[in-house]
UniProtKB/TrEMBL annotation:
Upper lineage: Bacteria, Pseudomonadati, Pseudomonadota, Betaproteobacteria, Burkholderiales
MF-aspect GO terms: siderophore uptake transmembrane transporter activity
Primary subcellular site in the record, as a coarse category: membrane
Protein name per Swiss-Prot or TrEMBL: TonB-dependent receptor
One GO cellular component term: cell outer membrane
Domain TonB-dependent receptor plug: 70-179
Length: 643
């Protein structure tokens, strides 16, 4: 078990030999030097730009994989829009995700995060699916996300839809506990120049984005970004030695003509993260193309394909290269009155090639693995009465490890009043084996093997979403998950290995709401309570204590937020979160307050100062005592110019 965790655990060991203070000084100088460039730009949006009625009309795609108003969605979805991102003061994408009350976001060190919904959280979390413009971000090494590899210009994000609950029918395996769907802005919305510079006592960044339109029907943008993270420290004040330098660049082009829309976008990234006697190096590139046609009212076809290459040189573990080719087609139509029918098919091929750098400690065998996945799916949403709609869907997905998996889903929604929706859903989802589950071996443990099967989740939910007045909206969801064949460590012929000997039940409630007191003042609140019970399946005898490798979760989480336009050019934002204690390894509960002050100096020039962990000098969020990072109070000064 230690060997498999070593493969994925990216905890760095040595510092990057670049003076952090020097980096901050040079970045601050650059920030001031660029200020005169913002002479003729547009004003950033304000709190009054979106009313609650407009917020409830935000279009989302996560639940139905088609455009729907958030107010009509029969699912537990929280939407983070661009204005939320701007006013959060966040520097990285995981910090933005703290805004979603249905996510548990725990920072493990300078670069690593544990992020999940509804339990089983870990830096190796494997039951959340993450998408960026339809491109799947999970790694088949462990069925999770390397968050340090995912770096975007936050101003280019249109919205982030956080769906908690099973999404297997539309998104396939690994969408067990939820889907994080990141949607970037159309290039037509990002013309002109944006320059961003920031410096603080924990990180600094430089970013630029340039957009244009050579033809009325064609728009493009290009971006480049550099982010430096300083090392964290443990409780004794000793450095964890986890500093990093990350670089990213990319482009997007959109063409719209008549009924057709075309998108082409690509990204490259490279990062060096301190670890051991050398540095962990990661890099990658991707290219995505998408065509869509609005054939008729209610009828749309879309074809998307992408290539992705990810390289990971993990000292003492593996040097890995993963190539992914993915193609998907979907079609929505209204074949009958009151019916919205969606169907599609997809194919993904992944080639994983690696060198085992420390075969005496850990190996993945074979060194080269080809994984194929294909699927077909269909979903029909139809009206039983003018106020009641029913949705039924099914996906058949075939993977290289366990063969054919069936992923059904049924939902019903009752429009109780024009402002209120009552909904219920039942779903089945699976987490298919990863390379670690099947192919990992150590001299002491025969971890992987052909007997590891898919983990199963059967999910039941009931929710209520309402906007009782023009100033107040809220959502409440009750959920129950039955898990079967969860991963365990069992005694097997030849030694210890991964098995499917655990089962469990997860029950809880998640709720959030928003109160717009006035055109200049808004409050947000969120609360999640969950209780997970795990036990050995009948007839099995997993290794004692093996439940801890499934995740580490608090029972209670609370989020409170305030956004206040103090004056026409001055804004104040406050975010308070309380996270309950984690059981194993034990992490004490903590309460953190983040404050941001924003100043619109002139049209197009915005300065902001963000202070994180204001009331707490330092606290841990993840890991075992002694070696874990203690997150310190942080200050970050940022300037954004829009030209």
């Amino acid at each position: 078990m230690r060997g498999a965790r070593r493969l994925m655990n990216n905890r760095p060991m040595n510092p990057i030999p670049v003076p952090a203070a020097a980096r901050r000084r040079s970045l601050a100088c650059g920030l001031l030097a660029l200020a005169p460039l913002a002479l003729a730009a547009q004003t950033a949006p304000s709190l009054t730009d979106l009313s609650l009625e407009q917020l409830s009309s935000i279009e989302v795609t996560s639940v139905g994989k088609r455009v729907q108003r958030l107010a009509d969605v029969p699912g537990s979805v929280y939407v983070i829009n661009q204005e939320d991102i701007r006013r959060s003061g966040a520097v990285t994408l995981p910090e933005v995700l703290r805004l979603a009350p249905n996510l548990h976001v725990a920072r493990a060190d300078a670069n690593q995060y544990a992020i999940s919904a509804r339990g089983f959280n870990s830096v190796l979390a494997n039951k959340m699916l993450v998408l960026v413009d339809g491109r799947t971000m999970y790694s088949p090494l462990f069925s999770g996300v390397f968050w340090e590899s995912l770096d975007l210009v936050l101003e280019d994000i249109e919205r982030i839809e956080v769906l908690s609950g099973a999404g297997g029918t539309l998104y396939g395996s690994n969408a067990v506990n939820g889907v994080i769907n990141i949607v970037t802005r159309n290039a037509a919305e990002t013309t002109g120049t944006l320059l961003k510079s920031g410096a603080g006592n924990r990180e600094n960044l430089l970013a630029g984005r340039w957009g244009g339109s050579p033809h009325p029907d064609v728009h493009w943008r290009f971006y480049a970004k550099r982010l430096n993270m300083d090392e964290t420290h443990n409780a004794a004040g000793a450095p964890i030695r986890d500093s990093s330098q990350r670089n990213a660049a990319g482009f997007r082009a959109d063409h719209a003509r008549g009924k057709d829309q075309w998108t082409l976008q690509g990204d490259v990234y490279q990062a060096e993260l301190t670890q051991g006697p050398t540095e962990r190096r990661i890099s990658g590139t991707s290219l995505l193309g998408r065509w869509a046609r609005d054939i008729a009212p209610g009828e749309r076809a879309q074809l998307q394909a992408y290539f992705d290459r990810a390289n990971r040189d993990q000292p003492g573990s593996v040097d890995d290269r993963l190539d992914t080719i993915d193609i998907e087609f979907q079609h929505t139509s209204r074949p009958l009155e009151r019916h919205d029918f969606l169907w599609g098919a997809g194919y993904r091929r992944q080639e994983d090639s690696l060198r085992n750098l420390a075969p005496a400690q850990l190996q993945l065998l074979p060194n080269h693995r080809r994984m194929n996945l294909w699927n077909v799916f269909a979903q029909d949403e139809f009206a039983l009465t003018p106020d009641i709609r029913f949705t039924a869907g099914l996906k058949a997905e075939h993977n290289s490890y366990t063969g054919l998996e069936w992923l059904p889903n049924a939902r019903v929604a009752w429009q109780a009043t024009p402002q209120s929706l009552l909904w219920a859903a039942v779903s089945r989802a699976v987490r298919v084996p990863s390379r670690v589950d099947r192919d990992a071996f150590t001299p002491q443990l025969n971890l992987g093997g052909p007997n590891f099967d898919s983990e199963i989740a059967r999910v039941a939910e009931i929710g209520w979403r309402s906007q009782p007045s023009a100033a107040v909206s809220y959502s409440v969801t009750l959920f129950h998950h039955d898990f079967d064949r969860l991963r365990s460590v069992d005694t097997q012929p030849g030694g210890l290995g991964f098995g499917n000997s655990y089962e469990g039940q997860l029950t809880g409630v998640e709720a959030w709401g928003r109160w717009k007191v006035s055109d200049t003042l808004r409050f947000d609140a969120g609360y999640v309570h969950q209780k997970l019970k795990l036990a050995a399946r009948a007839g099995t005898a997993p290794l004692p204590g093996g439940q801890s490798q499934l995740g580490n979760d608090p029972r209670n989480r609370v989020n409170l937020g305030l956004s206040w336009d103090v004056a026409p050019k001055l804004e104040l934002d406050a975010r308070l979160r309380h996270v309950g204690s984690l059981p194993l390894p034990a992490v004490p509960s903590y309460t953190a307050l983040d404050l941001r002050v924003g100043w619109h100096v002139r049209p197009g020039l915005e300065l902001s100062l963000t202070a994180r962990n204001v009331g707490d000098r330092r606290h841990p969020e993840w890991g075992a005592p002694g070696s874990r990072a203690e997150l310190e109070r942080a200050i970050f000064l940022k300037a954004v110019w829009r030209l």
